[in-house]
């Protein structure tokens, strides 16, 4: 066994030396001009895919960029409302009707801007349909079709009919798992009041996570990796917790059951409890945003390794290409699991926070 280990180690060492020597030899043959031309801008590739934009880039065929231009809708305090397709900007040298996209290095980088009389960049009121917005609309429409299709099947089903199979049966299992194992057990007796919101939140996050992993249109947009989306979801949970919170919930915040010297004369514990009202939704927002964003970035960086190593010789490029493909397959499989886990965790934590706010109320035990 030890002998096999030594042989394996030796083969790896020889392979490493061959790769290194091939890379050095290849670098000696490359002129500075060629090296500059072969440089891959990883930053623009990664942030171009995970960021938002005013057009949806589908693919590049030769020198032709196949994109879907999206409507730009802005309001300027100087000239009023403007509406045009984003392709107008490219057709007119980057500026159309006084508007342009802020270049790299600007504080409004990638956003629609205009210039005032002094030449300063100013932001108009922007309600454009961007890549993330369009993806959000497509994914929401897909979610509605799935859920309403399942609901339509149940409305058509006769009394006492056999249990559904196929896709409808799968959706029933999925919905009941979240309803019984998460919502009912975490919220408590009042679970029926909050089940519609929590089920909607789960499937909304899950469908957007899955669509974000599809590398071609209409997938690929980083919806749940956009902090504005996760912020709105966190605000919805914040409102559900605090608007419907019981009097016992508010009493425990402003006058918790702790020794008096922790409440007077300095209200230390009430301050901590009140601060926690805002940190809980903030944690929900950051958790979902950071996990989905990091997964997309990891896969994009692994893919970029193929192009970065293209000028390093066939041995090194071939090795890194194989490694990149294998790691990407692993990361995609892992992200499929993460897509479910993040939707599950967001729903579970929201249900726990709502359940804690309902604790001590006078609501009656809900029936099955």
UniProtKB/TrEMBL annotation:
Regions that span the bilayer: 132-154, 161-179, 194-216, 223-244, 264-286, 298-316, 336-357
Signal peptide residue numbers: 1-25
Major location (coarse): membrane
Membrane-topology descriptor: Multi-pass membrane protein
Domain of life of the native organism: Bacteria
Subcellular location: Cell membrane; Membrane
Record family assignment: Belongs to the ATPase A chain family.
NCBIfam families: ATP_synt_6_or_A
Role noted for this protein: Key component of the proton channel; it plays a direct role in the translocation of protons across the membrane.
This protein's name: ATP synthase subunit a
Organism (species): Bacteroides nordii CL02T12C05
